[in-house]
Amino acid sequence: MSEQVFTNCTNAGPVSVYVKDGKVTRMRPLVADEKDFKPWTIEAGGKKYSPPKKFAVAPYVHADRRRLYSEERIKYPMKRVDFDPDGERNPQNRGKSPYERISWDEALDIVAGEIKRVKDTYGGAAISGMTSSHHNWGIVGYKMGPFARFMNLLEYTPVLDNPDSWEGWHWGATHTYGFYWRLGMPEQYDLLEDSLKNAEMIVLWSNDPDTTRGTYTGQDSALWRQWLKEKGVKMVFIDPFYNFTAGVMDGKWIAPRIGTDTCLAMAIAHVWITEDIYDKEYVRDRTVGFDEFKEYVLGNTDGQPKTPEWAENESGVKARVIRALAREWAAKRTILSGGARGGEGGACRQAYGTEWARMMVLLQGMQGLGKPGRTIWGTTMGAPSDTKHWFPAYADLQGRVSTADIAKYVPMNPTKQRLWRLTLPDAVLDPPVSWYGEGFCGQSLEQQFTHFEYPMEGYPEIRLFYRYGGSFMGTMSDTTKWVKMYQSPKLEFVVNQDIWFNSETRMADIILPACSNFERDDVGEWGACGGYTCHASSGCNYRIVVRQQKCIEPLWESKSDYQILTLLAERLGMKEEFTDGRTELDWVKAFYESSDLPGLVSWEEFNKKGYHIINIPDDYKSTPSLRWFAEGRDCDTPDTNNPKRNTEKAKELGTYSGKIEFSSESLKANFPDDEERPVSPKYIPSWEGHHSEMYREYPLQLMSPHPRFTFHCHYDKHTDWLDDIPGHRIKKDGYAWWPARISPEDAALRGIQNGDIVRLYNHRASVLCIAVVTERIRPGIIHSYASSAKYDPLVPGQADSPDRGGCVNMLTPSRMVSKNVPGMTPNSCLIEIEKWEG
Amino acid sequence: MKKYAFIIDIAKCENCNNCFLSCKDEHCGNNWPGISLSQPLHGQRWINIRRRERGEFPFIDVAYLPQPCFHCDNAPCVRAAGNGAVYRREDGIVIIDPEKAKGREEIVSSCPFGAIWWNEEAQIPQKCTFCAHLLDQGWKKTRCVQACPTSALSSVFLEDKELERLIREEGLERYGGERQDAKPRCFYKNLHRYTRAFIAGTVATGDKLRSDCVEGATVRLLKDGNPVAEQKSDAFGDFKFDGLEADGSVYIVEVLSSAGERHTVEIELKKSCFTGTVRV
Ligand SMILES: Nc1nc2c(c(=O)[nH]1)N[C@H]1C(S)=C(S)[C@@H](COP(=O)(O)OP(=O)(O)OC[C@H]3O[C@@H](n4cnc5c(=O)[nH]c(N)nc54)[C@H](O)[C@@H]3O)O[C@H]1N2
Ligand SMILES: Nc1nc2c(c(=O)[nH]1)N[C@H]1C(S)=C(S)[C@@H](COP(=O)(O)OP(=O)(O)OC[C@H]3O[C@@H](n4cnc5c(=O)[nH]c(N)nc54)[C@H](O)[C@@H]3O)O[C@H]1N2
Ligand code: SF4
Ligand code: SF4
Ligand code: SF4
Ligand SMILES: [Ca+2]
Ligand SMILES: [Ca+2]
Ligand SMILES: [Mo+4]
């Protein structure tokens, strides 16, 4: 058979897939026709900047072929050997007992039978289920589509996701400048042009864009930063780790102790106020509540002026460096880059992370946020990009099989009960649990103040857990609790549906093998997530919608998620309701037809060629983010979800006052007495930091940022080629260990050498890693990436057994950001470390 | 006759490993008849990204040196193998013939740069082929070059004369220490980031109670009493003299404050270092 080339898309870029005799032989960044590209040009400083005609995908995408054929694939339906739905269930053996291969018929009968039994016995709300955050690309198969549609038909109890990517920004920054419809991120339109034309300095504060790569946009923006470097734009990195962007940008490195960033920010404000070097006119016209904030900074309310010397004591950063930074920032047109999307950043996922995120906005508020070169920009979005042509993205309601209007029938779930992802183990083991906040609060600021309690009055506790994906041992907090939860007899039945074995897979009674996006039909636009991050594909040099062609038949006995759920629905007598009478390819075509693509390319051409590039129009007009606000004009950006846009309030931000709030009106109205998220931001020492009791026994701070060579659990373990990259996993004695980075000082104190196996531990757990001794980490801190896909306890099934897979999240606290802020806090974690003699 | 060569800018390499992984995708599990047999799943690094950290906390930097086969003009591997087992094509690409080289493990050590790997299972020496099988099919670039997001890694196809001009204009260097006689066709920009050392430091005023960074102080580097470089400290009071040979030479760093004070620090340069804070 001759070679065929298919198109597909991953969560970090489009690919061309070469297939010979039914086997994939090559996967490379998508090769598009030269003529299809119309590169944009930005003129700045007498130079013209224009991207090459190619797609710069993330590293792991080049290893996707290996992942496709991985021995870590779930190949067949399986049943835990000591699970019998009609007899002994042995839930205590979840995580411990082996599995046996069963037929699809048997597996589907058991799963459908259990769903029916639980629904009939307790009601649909006794069924719960959830996905992980990131799915293989493609809107038809996306977790929010078929899975949500299926679960809604069952009338299940949904588990609300905590906004883990945004935490401090979501719960904090929204109360300073609105943007709740972006979960606390500012707009990013045309900021590449703004930076090239106007920026003199960029402060990357808790941001490593060369690693986090615009989340879904691969490495297109790496070149933009090269342009900025060549232009001589000074880069400052505030990060306890000398991160990869700092490395290639050759920036100034400032490494604070974890948990003290807010303190550093306060000291910068102190310099600006006392030296009178901030934008007073802007503060007067565009902000409210500055006086209250100023009193605190000057120490008039608590007797402690927030001087650089005070901050040096807390953060370990020299007062003179803080002063120099503050003066440079004020003197030069400075962009603040506070995480992967402008905001985000590991500093927001910790105790009182709200205060840091609020301070990021307020610092720029003092320097004229939105003025040329004075903005908040992640350096990863905001290339010139067409926003007129719409194509649905996975987070758009119109991009989901479960909610889109293209469906004849849209199932509604009447169940009001909710669970909170971070407290799910507590909810099962030790109910009741309660919290404030409706998950991703993207509709209003008030959603953050809704109170929930589980179990909800009139509803049952959950008995059946349908887990789709299985990454949480490596990604949630204090995860020994998840093992305990799974072993609870209260969960009468657990099913796991995934493509690869992940850290939770072996906690299930039945395991179902799904197939990857290369084995089914789909469609998706590169980088576009829609919803709360609308127009995210401006992080790519070109908008490209990819017809994700089925390249090969599903491997082993795997089936597409859609097929699996269809077969279950059939057994439950609701096949037609589930499928809406459509195949996956029918849905692809229906989404195409619902979009603006038919005006640009015919279905036949799109389907055959496999992609369409949406170039910018000749009369493209740049509308830099927040320039409208800084200049007192109506919002002129295409930020479609901004509710004030095109209304009489179009000049306003999304806060109560419509201005930047140094003193938050929304917090004043709802939680006026909250000391932990005060009306005006404060520096509050971490509840698990260098001042806490625990520090005496566990004097090292663990930081666990996003992994450089994988996308969370995606690719780790399932793509062993990555273990050949020194620094992803490191092989020793035939085992691929997870690295923990330690300073030479801390290593010497403990007799640890580079390459030693070490035990990271605290009262919560022990994790075995391989030591990497490096000057890249501030002494007192251990750096080990989050998101190991491998949970490998020395004693399987025993929750507190040391894990040698590298799930460092077993060590992190399950305590929330603050009492009314139910966010995750992995970067507030104290540990000790010792050489492991085994 | 035009020939291929690699051009690699160390200052643009962020160690993303796109090149390394795309090479694996192209060659693992794929035989390219006449050019190469499948690369084993693990253990070979046809493009080997070397890593270096310099300096000490918090005055450090890092550099990455992606190293493919250099496709040397005067290749020791070609000479050592003899008999056409390793040969150089007219376009400059050096190929190990998978058939003729079978069983000849000694070819591995004939490369002074460590670019050849031994395939235990197939009993052949292997290395980067410059993706000759693709170029022969009309591709313009190798897999790794296509995959590089910043163009840190690039290739050219030039007459010797044009290449020489490029080397001059761009200040390109060969990597490979003593064995320049092999004439590698792989040229590096900003090579000092990997091979040389720096002396960095910072200038401040005042004492423990109140100190400030000193911008614009004149900092001179002297060797054997002679000034070799001069800089002004930046806004953070920092200075950094790079591109120095870490051969144990003694340097004097001389800081002149605006008030005319002169402070000196003596450094015996064995590896990149930080002078400490110079107080003026
Ligand atoms: N310590 C620490 N922890 C963190 C963070 C941190 O900074 N530090 N960051 C947090 C953040 S921001 C995030 S987003 C989370 C991410 O954490 P998770 O959401 O837990 O991680 P993912 O890797 O996205 O999980 C994906 C899972 O879905 C499965 N999956 C993917 N595609 C498919 C499919 O097509 N079908 C099926 N059936 N399954 C599929 C994968 O195999 C995998 O099991 O981690 C959080 N955890
Ligand atoms: N390769 C890769 N890219 C990804 C992901 C991935 O898993 N892998 N995940 C994607 C997702 S879901 C998200 S939400 C984004 C997340 O993007 P971010 O939230 O921006 O990423 P993090 O890695 O958590 O943090 C960025 C930097 O902050 C630093 N940092 C951590 N704690 C502190 C602190 O207390 N103070 C300071 N000053 N710095 C600190 C870390 O060292 C790191 O260099 O990334 C996305 N991109
Ligand atoms: S680098 Fe080594 S293997 Fe490559 S041509 Fe030169 S001597 Fe031969
Ligand atoms: S040129 Fe080809 S063979 Fe050589 S390193 Fe690059 S991808 Fe590998
Ligand atoms: S692809 Fe380019 S930037 Fe990435 S590691 Fe290779 S040479 Fe460096
Ligand atoms: Ca390794
Ligand atoms: Ca040190
Ligand atoms: Mo996230």
Automatic annotation (TrEMBL), chain A:
Molybdopterin oxidoreductase domain span: 73-571
Domain (Molybdopterin dinucleotide-binding): residue spans on this chain: 701-817
One MF annotation (Gene Ontology) recorded for this entry: molybdenum ion binding
Annotated ranges, domain Pyrogallol hydroxytransferase large subunit-like N-terminal: 13-65
Matches recorded under InterPro entries: AhtL-like_N (IPR049032), MoPterin_dinucl-bd_dom (IPR006657), Mopterin_OxRdtase (IPR006656), Prok_Mopterin_Oxidored (IPR050612)
Gene Ontology CC terms, in alphabetical order: outer membrane-bounded periplasmic space
Any GO BP annotation: anaerobic respiration
Region described as Disordered: spans on this chain: 632-651
Family: Belongs to the prokaryotic molybdopterin-containing oxidoreductase family.
Name under which the protein is recorded: Dehydrogenase
From TrEMBL, chain B:
Gene Ontology MF, one: metal ion binding
Name by which UniProt lists this protein: Oxidoreductase
Organism encoding this protein: Desulfomarina profundi
PANTHER family cross-referenced by the UniProt entry: PROTEIN NRFC, PROTEIN NRFC HOMOLOG
Domain annotation 4Fe-4S ferredoxin-type: ranges: 61-154
Record key words, sorted: 4Fe-4S, Iron, Iron-sulfur, Metal-binding
One Pfam match: Fer4_11
Protein origin, superkingdom: Bacteria
